[in-house]
């Protein structure tokens, strides 16, 4: 059993380990933490949450009895993000990213053991040895059982229970807060919170609620007695902020325990620190931010708070990116972007960090959190690239918006919602940034006015789009179903590409005039057509009846139904284009389409698609082997003619890396590895086997696993070849950036690779004919051409240089004017001539007119001394360009322009001279 050497020397890493060891000694099993993207133990995305905000999030299926835990008692340390009350960040304890130490019971122990375990860990001589004088607890006002359990412990320790236990309402002692009456739907229950005194006892006013609200007590542990399922629905689905209507509370299948102790807060208490920012998981970051700002931390309240805000937001941003979350304008990506921008704003406005600094702080994040989060180092390149690009983007936005903000901001009162929306809509200035800047000036932003402008703009946008949707408005869809229609379309296309089935639902499409356009949406009783999904495109093919034929142009899934986008090729000798709604309704309701049909998938197209899909799995695995395990899929397209794969990685791939990846995959194709597809695999088993799965994808309890033994293992519902040899050939055609921190590779396989190679061969043959050389000699022929071009360019430059000796200067009132007319030289040579001419005398103006077959280029250089006398190159070029039917301009010292009338080139020089004369007062 672990022994605490000294409370003062215990850092967060030791505290984390000690907590887990304590509960291991109480027959708990350690369970790995979930990512910040809220995925539960079954692999399902919890779409009611943006982030994992508590240790219990991944365990909801255990609490609800929907999955069996590996042990009835679990313990872990869970990384969490909570983005509420962001404005509170920077005080001594509120954080957006934190670690939650938690112990959990699923139908095993309940209130008594949970409270007694907490007591022993906090006060036990073998554990934290906290002073009970400085601890108080709260319970839900109606929870007499919890009060009594605590009372016995406090009595035995020599304390009066009424002085140590406080009854509070559901806003404080129910989880989630106010869940007893307000929801949200899900597991809930009363809780008991444990607080530590942060001030001397003499500073307490005696009323716990007042002292806690004013920061004299710090919550360090929350014991949730999870025993109910709250049921209800949104009052208004379009306005979720209005809350829920309660339908009832039902007991969960078992009574459960969910506890959470903030690692940072508990570490601060143990270390005797006044703030969580003084702990080892913050100190390196705080020191680095202060160092970059040239600020001595602890000497200025406003700057100290800015340092703390940046430190918190940098931890959160780094951990989010580590877990695959990238900045965006929606969802969790928007929260990440907001935090990063808030950190940049505080650095720029409060600390004077006018240059990019986020990547300079990141090494300190690794120092503070690198143990146990080794992924911070493994994914460093992605994280730093994302930080850098986001800061560069925001600083551009900030520069553009600040000037307008300053113009709009009143001296006092309210910053108008209309102006805030203008900044947002026109300059991309986020509302939160406007609010931050307004707060600095003591202003409020009219948020309701902003929302009204936003709504008005959205309505204008919808009106401007006009027209009808594919199906028209939902109420206007003409959908005819047969008596055999079912709510689910079975897909049988993994093994069969042609089957006998029947049409069970059909919906015609109409043109803008309200007449049929010959296209129909068709649903079959069962289908071999793969619906678009998982990056793979939908199948095409044919549906053939006894007296009609439909061409299937696309397939997609809507809910549990699979729909086919079809075009009528023939129908009993009738034309189904241009019919009114009543006419087509009569045809459909006659049942003419509701008959047995042959559904035939385009076999060649499907095979090409399967080649590309299996190749995508090989590519994913090769990227992780070559670049590192930080590589995760960020998007894909699997089409018959090509594949596209987006993945998290910061830097462009080198030619060597691309060659290596391509070589690996072609070797694996040549080695003819079998592709093993397993259906109905328990999700927990797939996870244990290390199958790759995508964040954001929803998985059932049983999944389809596609494996290439020794190479790849992924959850996938797509279509694949039976052996890698069927892919034939793999060729990377491009690599580039897709988004911040995301790269994209495009490639071709099989027949697509053959077509690609033939196209390149045609290009080579064309080049060979132009060069009058065999294909094998093209490089040598090109090199010879390059040498010839180099020689010709050199000769042209020499000729241009010789021109500078031949130009006759014109003296104009103390300024030397150098007019030069050139032809048959490169623009770069003309630029060199104008610079050399101007350098011939201190008070010079040189003007070069380059005459080319179809245009004129004009360059003008004026020395500083000539500018001081009134010369202006920009105005000279403008006058000269007008003479050749063009435009031009620039700075007084240098300008350029041109026109489309080469025959008037000499007139351009005369116009330039005349303009200079006017500027310096020289008579003609």
Q: What does this molecule look like?
A:
- The protein has 28 helices and 31 strands.
- The protein is α+β, with helices and mostly antiparallel strands.
- The protein folds into 6 domains: 261 residues, 2-Layer Sandwich (BirA Bifunctional Protein, domain 2), CATH 3.30.930.10; 119 residues, no CATH class; 55 residues, no CATH class; 128 residues, Elongation Factor Tu (Ef-tu), domain 3, CATH 2.40.30; 127 residues, Threonyl-tRNA Synthetase, Chain A, domain 2, CATH 3.30.980.10; 121 residues, Diaminopimelate Epimerase, Chain A, domain 1, CATH 3.10.310.
- Helix 10 packs antiparallel against helix 13 and helix 27 packs antiparallel against helix 28.
Walk me through the topology.
Blueprint: H1 12-24, E1 29-30, H2 60-63, E2 73-81, E3 97-106, H3 111-123, E4 135-140, H4 144-156, H5 161-164, E5 165-168, H6 170-173, E6 174-175, H7 179-182, E7 186-197, H8 208-213, E8 217-234, E9 244-262, H9 263-271, H10 283-293, H11 301-322, H12 331-349, H13 358-369, H14 375-378, H15 380-408, E10 414-415, H16 417-427, H17 431-440, E11 444-445, H18 447-465, E12 480-481, E13 498-510, E14 516-524, E15 541-544, E16 548-558, E17 561-571, H19 581-589, E18 596-601, H20 603-627, E19 633-638, E20 643-648, H21 655-670, E21 676-682, H22 683-688, E22 702-708, E23 712-715, E24 730-739, E25 742-749, H23 750-771, H24 778-806, E26 810-812, E27 815-823, H25 827-838, E28 844-851, E29 856-862, H26 864-868, H27 873-883, E30 887-890, E31 894-899, H28 905-920
Parallel strand pairs: 1-2, 4-5, 10-11, 27-28
Antiparallel strand pairs: 2-3, 3-9, 4-7, 6-7, 7-8, 8-9, 12-13, 13-14, 13-18, 14-17, 15-16, 15-18, 16-17, 19-20, 20-25, 21-22, 22-23, 24-25, 26-27, 28-29, 29-31, 30-31
Helix pairs in contact: 3-4, 10-11, 10-13, 11-12, 11-15, 12-15, 15-16, 16-18, 20-21, 24-25, 27-28
């Amino acid at each position: 059993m672990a022994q605490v050497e000294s409370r003062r020397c215990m850092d967060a890493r030791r505290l984390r380990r000690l907590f887990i060891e304590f509960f291991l000694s109480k027959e708990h099993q350690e369970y790995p933490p979930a990512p910040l993207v809220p995925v539960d133990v079954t692999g399902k995305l919890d779409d009611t949450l943006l982030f994992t905000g508590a240790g219990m999030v991944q365990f909801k299926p255990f609490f609800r009895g929907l999955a069996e835990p590996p042990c009835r008692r679990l313990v872990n340390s869970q990384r969490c993000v909570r983005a509420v009350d962001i404005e509170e960040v920077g005080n001594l304890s509120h954080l957006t990213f934190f670690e939650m130490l938690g112990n959990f019971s699923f139908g095993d122990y309940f209130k008594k053991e949970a409270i007694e375990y907490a007591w022993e860990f906090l006060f036990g001589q073998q554990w934290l040895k906290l002073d009970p004088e400085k601890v108080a607890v709260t319970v839900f006002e109606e929870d007499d059982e919890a009060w009594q359990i605590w009372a016995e412990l406090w009595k035995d320790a020599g304390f009066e229970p009424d002085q140590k236990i406080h009854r509070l309402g559901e806003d404080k002692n129910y989880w989630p807060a106010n869940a007893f009456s307000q929801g949200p739907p899900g597991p809930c229950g009363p809780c008991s919170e444990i607080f530590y005194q942060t001030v001397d006892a003499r500073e307490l006013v005696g009323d716990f609620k007042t002292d806690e609200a004013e920061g004299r007590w710090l919550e360090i542990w929350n014991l949730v007695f999870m025993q109910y399922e709250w049921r209800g629905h949104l009052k208004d689905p379009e306005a979720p902020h209005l809350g829920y209507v309660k339908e009832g509370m039902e007991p969960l299948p078992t009574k459960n325990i969910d506890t959470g102790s903030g690692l940072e807060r508990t570490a601060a208490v143990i270390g005797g620190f006044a703030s969580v920012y003084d702990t080892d998981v913050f100190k390196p970051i705080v020191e680095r931010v202060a160092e970059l700002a040239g600020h001595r931390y602890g000497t200025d309240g406003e700057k100290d708070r800015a340092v703390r805000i940046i430190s918190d937001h940098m931890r959160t941003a780094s951990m989010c990116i580590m877990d695959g979350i990238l900045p965006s304008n929606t969802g969790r990506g928007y929260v990440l972007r907001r935090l990063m921008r808030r950190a940049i704003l505080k650095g720029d406005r409060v600390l004077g960090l006018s240059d990019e600094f986020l990547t300079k702080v990141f090494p300190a994040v690794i120092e503070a959190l690198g143990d146990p989060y080794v992924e911070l180092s493994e994914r460093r390149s992605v994280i730093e690239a994302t930080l850098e690009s986001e800061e560069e983007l925001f600083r551009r936005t900030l520069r553009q918006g600040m000037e307008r903000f300053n113009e709009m901001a009143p001296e006092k009162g309210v910053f108008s919602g209309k102006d805030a929306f203008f900044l947002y809509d026109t300059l991309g200035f986020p509302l939160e940034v406007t609010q931050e800047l307004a707060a600095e000036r003591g202003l409020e932003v009219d948020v309701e006015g902003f929302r009204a402008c936003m709504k008005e703009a959205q309505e204008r946008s919808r009106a401007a789009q006009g027209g009808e949707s594919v199906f028209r408005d939902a109420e206007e869809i003409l959908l005819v179903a047969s008596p055999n229609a079912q709510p689910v379309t079975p897909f049988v296309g993994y093994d069969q590409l042609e089957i006998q089935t029947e049409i069970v639902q059909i919906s015609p499409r109409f043109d803008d005039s309200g007449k049929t356009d010959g296209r129909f949406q068709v649903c079959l009783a069962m289908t071999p057509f793969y619906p678009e999904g998982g990056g793979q495109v939908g199948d095409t093919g044919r549906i053939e009846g006894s007296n009609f034929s439909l061409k299937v142009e696309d397939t997609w899934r809507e809910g549990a139904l699979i729909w086919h986008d079809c075009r009528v090729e023939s129908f009993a000798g009738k034309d189904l284009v241009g019919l009114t709604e009543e006419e087509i309704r009569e045809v459909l309701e006659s049942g003419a389409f509701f008959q047995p049909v042959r559904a035939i998938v385009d076999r060649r197209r499907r095979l090409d698609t399967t080649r590309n899909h299996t190749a995508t799995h090989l590519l994913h695995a090769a990227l992780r082997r070559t670049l590192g395990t930080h590589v995760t899929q960020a998007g894909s397209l699997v089409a018959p003619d090509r594949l596209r794969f987006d993945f998290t990685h910061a830097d462009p791939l080198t030619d060597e890396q691309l060659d290596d990846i391509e070589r690996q995959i072609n070797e694996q194709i040549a080695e003819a590895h079998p592709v093993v597809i397993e259906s109905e695999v328990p999700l927990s088993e797939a996870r244990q086997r290390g199958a790759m799965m995508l964040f954001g994808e929803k998985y059932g309890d049983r999944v389809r696993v596609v494996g290439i033994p020794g190479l790849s293992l992924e959850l996938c519902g797509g279509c694949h070849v039976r052996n890698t040899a069927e892919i034939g050939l793999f060729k990377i055609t491009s690599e580039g950036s897709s988004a911040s921190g995301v790269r994209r590779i495009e490639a071709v396989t099989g027949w697509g690779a053959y077509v690609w190679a033939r196209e390149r061969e045609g290009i080579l043959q064309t080049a060979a004919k132009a060069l009058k050389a065999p294909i094998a000699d093209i490089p040598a022929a090109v090199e010879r051409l390059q040498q010839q071009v180099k020689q010709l360019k050199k000769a042209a430059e020499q000729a241009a240089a010789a021109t500078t000796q031949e130009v006759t200067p014109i003296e104009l009132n103390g300024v030397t004017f150098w007019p030069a007319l050139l032809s048959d030289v490169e623009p770069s040579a003309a630029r060199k001539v104008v610079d050399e001419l101007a350098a011939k005398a201190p008070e010079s103006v040189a003007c070069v007119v380059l005459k080319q077959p179809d245009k004129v280029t004009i360059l003008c250089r004026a020395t500083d001394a000539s500018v001081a006398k009134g010369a202006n190159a920009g105005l000279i070029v403008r006058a000269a360009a007008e003479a050749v039917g063009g435009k031009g301009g620039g700075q007084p010292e240098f300008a350029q322009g041109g026109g489309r009338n080469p025959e008037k080139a000499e007139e351009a020089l005369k116009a330039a001279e005349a303009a200079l004369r006017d500027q310096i007062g020289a008579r003609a």
